[in-house]
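Show me any protein, fold above all:
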Amino acid sequence: MSTPPPMISRACATLLGTPARTAERLKTGSRTAVYRARLRDGRSVIVKLYAHTARRNALTEATAIRAAAASVPVPEILGCGTASDEGATALIMSDLGTCTLGTSVRADRIPRSEALKDLGGLLGRLHRAPVARSVPRRPFFDVVSSLTGRCPSELLDQIAPALSLIADTPDTAPTVWRHGDLHFDNVVLSGAQDTRYLVDFTDATPGQRESDVAHALVMTAAHTPWDREALTSRYPLALDNARLSAWVVLITVRCWAHSAPGEDQALWSRRLTGLTHQTPHLFRTRRTERTSR
């Protein structure tokens, strides 16, 4: 750890009443940054900073964490609020350590199939957390429109059957707290019993349960039927399998749209091609024009 950046020091002093002595940057995104900070009173905490331009911020993430806490282990919120004159926000949480489900799988301490079952069980518990009517839901139209500037129109036209299936979801379909970014490294193992804690609720919003399960399948590369079965076998709630597959297509396209040119984009292109063979009914078949003889 090194001398903390001014924003970290200010956030800790303002929200906890104790300055940070050292800080280590863990992750940086376009509008967020995460640090592990050591306070002058000896505590180690996780500090997450949101830029003032972020659509979601520390306050919306704190709302999701508090709601999830009713059903699944999550970090303790120690402080939350504005951290700069420009409107940047900070969320300070308990430090659960560095051991994640991902590091355990990569070190062969936990079999991948068991890790997928853990994700399914955690999602099932999270999706039982109560969703207040006052919490905004993101319309599906916004999800699609956010892709129009990144995807060729031909690609969106190709996945029209998948989009149509999702759009036709009845209003009576259950609304749950979606984690929005569940993968092996967003599960921290902590305590003597290696309790599984869900972390990083940056993208958490109310929505369809199938979209959250699909995101976990996509982000863990659970492409095979047995991988999908491993994750869903521990998921205790009813799933619409057709809708789940449609969400897998949409999320794969979204990952392709946000991927970096080169090998990363090629990877997502290969995965999308694989889906055209696994679930051809969710893609529009290109018709070959006939010429008259």
